[in-house]
Design a protein that fits this description.
- This protein is of the alpha+beta class and about 200 residues long.
- It has 5 helices and 9 strands.
- Strands 1, 2, 3, 4, 5, 6, 7, 8 and 9 form a 9-stranded antiparallel beta sheet that branches.
- Keywords: Membrane, Transmembrane, Transmembrane helix.
């Protein structure tokens, strides 16, 4: 009888040892998502990047529309998530998806706090204005949280916190405008220099 019992225990232990051990993420409240994030933004996933920050991570290009938190104004950001070689794996979302991202920053590397830090959203209308700063109240009017994993209370909590924030708008044409401004400055300088040289030549 004892031998049978020992055999059963051995079989159970063998099964446990051969099972894959899956890591799990600690659940964060909405308040913790906002408090623990270094950067919070709304942007469009452009797809995976060829850039590799470090092993066991996928890197995505994100086109940023709004910054809700963080001293940063980049229009394009690379965001990393654990790849499928680890049990912590999750994707940023499909290419073209609009997402609200709660990010941790480590040595200029941006990663979501957890799978909870990737929240699919939609914006009903284009609310880009001349001013770079808009109110959270204005943004919430057009923002819809479409993450099926969240309960209605959590969605409302997210909107309530956003209402009290100042939102930095990143315009898609801002970089192009800077290039155009610099180009006009160079052309103007060359025209002025040419005029001065021509006048000097005429006086001779």
């Amino acid at each position: 009888m004892l031998n049978i019992k020992n055999a059963v225990i051995s079989i159970v232990l063998a099964i446990i040892m051969t099972m894959n051990v899956h890591a799990c993420w600690v659940h964060l409240s909405v308040a913790e998502l906002f408090q623990n994030s270094n950067v919070i933004l709304i942007g469009t996933v452009q797809g995976e990047s060829r850039k590799k920050i470090f092993s066991e991570y996928n890197v995505y290009n994100v086109n940023v529309h709004y910054y809700l938190k963080g001293n940063i104004q980049k229009q394009n950001l690379t965001v990393a998530t654990p790849d499928n070689t680890t049990s912590l794996h999750y994707d940023l979302n499909e290419k073209g998806s609009l997402v609200l991202l709660f990010l941790h920053v480590d040595n200029r590397n941006y990663t979501p706090l957890s799978p909870q830090g990737v929240v699919p959203v939609s914006i009903k209308e284009d609310i880009l204005e001349k001013e770079n700063i808009i109110s959270g109240k204005e943004l919430v009017k057009f923002l819809e949280i479409i993450d099926s994993k969240l309960e209605d209370k959590e969605k409302n909590d997210i909107k309530h916190i956003i209402e009290n924030l100042d939102v930095l708008t990143i315009k898609e044409n801002c970089e192009q405008n800077n290039i155009s401004t610099n180009l006009y400055f160079v052309i103007g300088f060359l025209v002025l220099l040419s005029t001065i040289l021509i006048n000097k030549h005429i006086k001779r």
